[in-house]
Amino acid sequence: MELVTLFYIVDEFCVSFEPEWRARQLASGERKRNRRSTMTLSEVMTICIWFHISGYRQFKQYYQEHVSVHMRDDFPNLVSYNRFLALMSEASLPLLALMTSLLGEATLANFVDSTTLDVCDNKRIWKHRVFKGIATRGKSSMGWFFGLKLHLTVNERGEITSFLLSPGNVSDGNQDLMLKLTEKLTGKLYADKGYISHALFLSLLRKGITLITGIRRNMKNCLMSLWDKLMLRKRSIIETINDQLKNTQQIEHSRHRSPRNFIVNLLSGLIAYQLQPKKPCIHYTKKEQGLLTQPLLVA
Fold this sequence. Notes:
Elements: H1 3-24, H2 41-54, H3 59-70, H4 81-89, H5 92-101, E1 109-118, E2 136-140, E3 143-155, E4 160-167, H6 175-181, E5 187-190, H7 198-206, E6 209-212, H8 226-233, H9 236-247, H10 259-275, H11 286-291
Parallel strand pairs: 1-5, 5-6
Antiparallel strand pairs: 1-3, 2-3, 3-4
């Protein structure tokens, strides 16, 4: 994606969103200067999102060595790095609204999974202060970690259809979380064994969602259509997306200095992924698409 294209998408969104957002803000009662910034909201958001496309690993290096040097013509009203950090923290809500508007449509085949977002190394848990009271200890298939969890649902086109953030100790199969995550979903939802729960299965079934998972070794076998077994093997699509978000879009690092800037970094990375033209996807024919409507066979 080109920078001009990204700025056009963000600016068109800000034209309709910013006036209403400013009008609905509540006053704190304190007297504050309401001086207009030299950089517009759309410029700040574009620079934040472009960081996750640029290939840089550190935002400070990206801003000082790339933006301030090579993007002066594109953004003539650039501010200092410290001033930009203050403007960036104010863009968290607009970025959330933009990401919500970019969510893909749920289809008949949806996939769900979570990924850990470590906020510090396990050796520094007792010294960590930025996410005190927010991040928690949790355990994943890779071991213990300290941080948060990002829960995603995606369709077969690789588009994110919903997302939620939770503390690290929240289970993947948490019923309240899953009901919130799947509010707009229908059809079949493919997941790993961490989502096995009879109560969760019944709750989703009442909403018209069929949760399909593998079985553990100590569980009785169930009858399942061949197509659903094949689709379970395609669940690697969401694991690929999680890997791309963490290693290409840089949504995870341990250098955050405030929770708000963590949210800005996370949302900017999700938007950068959602706007990229090529995503991991599954291609199937119309006949195969019709197989998705087959009911689940239970012994």
